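User: Hi! I'm working on a homework problem where we have to compare a predicted structure to a textbook description. Could you give me the structure for the chain below?
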Amino acid sequence: MASSITGGFAPARPARPTPPAADANRGAQVLGWSALAGIGTSLLIIITISAVGHSWAVAPMPGPAPYAPPLLNASLSPLTVTLGLWAAGLLAAGGVLAGLAAVARGARLPLWLMIGGAVVAVAALTVLPPTGSTDTLDYAAYGRMVVLGHTPYVMTPDQLRSMGDPIGQAAPHLWGTRVSLYGPLATVEEAAAALLGGTSVARIIFWLKLWNALAFGAVALALDRMLRADRARRTRAHLLWTVNPLLLWNLIAGGHLDGLAAAVGFLGLALFSSPRTDGDPGPLRAASAGLLIGMAADLKISFALFGLGLIWASRRSLKTALTGAVSALVVIVPSYIWFGPPAVAALLSRTGNDSAVSFYRLLSWLPDNNQLILFLALPALAFVTAAMLARFPDHAPGLPAIQPALALGLAWLFIWPYQYPWYDAMVICLLALYPASRLDWLVIGRLGAATIALMPGNPVWPRPDWLTEIAQATLFYITPGLMLAAAAVLVWLCLTGAWRIQPPGLARQPELLSLT
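Assistant: Happy to help. Predicted structure tokens:
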């Protein structure tokens, strides 16, 4: 009957349009799973290449540490290692950015999986040989010098090698004629590792990497506890720091000292807190913070920027500012006196020459370009520093030194000529305490570009020839151009104030997605 009345079949009901919220949730879910897949695959590639017995990216040593599991009895060609690590770098940067976008859209990433995966990755990279850098071999040589009664501010690794010392024999030739440029506390740390490791290069490096790993974990734990009330910011902090393959590659696999210095300085800034957002933490907290920041600067002098951040935050209270400064100097001054004038001379010998990924490399074709670089860098750094201090908003309630320390660190990293990707640990640990903003994308994108350009870390150009040409173009032209663009974007953000800082409390929004 009904069909006869309607003249056949009943008309179909129009399809309901997909609600915008459902589309947003689906997009956040795709981003979330993409982030986990990219980060996990990147870490798997990095660990595999580090574990292979004959890998072009692994620093040559007499043998693996006795604490390490047996390396994979295989060899990888330079082509495989290079392409594999480039893919790992792209997946790392893409995975972290996808995760940040997913969290911004309301996704809940599984924290247990992220933290558990990071613990496994850190443990594996700690016991495996250093990958992507030979700096730890220099650290071992410096520490060995102290154990033998010498000073790394006078003796060079080549001189240690000429003595027939087994640690000197393993030292790389790249910096063989240079004395240590690190602070006295770094020398003490290296000497302690050399004392524990004896005549085994692998054992010395194991201790150096272990302390780096513990420091990295301390920052992750501190971030987790400080942001525990806001699930979204907590997840974002772990994406930026804990499970970030770019940091794990530079700080844990490579074993660079910056991880330890960043952790000590970060904890110092975190101690300088006040329960009131507009309150002065007071001299007692300034003294405690100053001691830790002084230790960070005594490891690597660039972390004195954290001390300047503390002083700037205390500029309305002379007593607090002086207390913080004096407590930092209580650490730094005696250590330099102990090692004597050579340590001071090594500190002053640091030059403004450009590094491999600096955008000042674009001026390398000019004669006597070192003077020109300093002529350009000094006023540019002064301008960007002033702009960051004046225009960078403060969104770290109760932590008054975080904003100026982050502002100073960003200006220095983006503008000063001599930079490497592991230096970025200085700002990423602080950025994790901030709400999400355009800075996240800028910092991670810049870190990814610089990291990939220096992969796999072998000073010899890869073969075949076409791969060499790509690597050279990336290092000398593409990456410096990207670094210049990043500096320009930072200046633009300062001038326009277009930070797009996300207000806290995203985790309390309804209908959040869970990937668990």
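For your comparison, note the following. Residues 38-508 form one domain. The longest helix spans residues 20-51. Good luck with the assignment!
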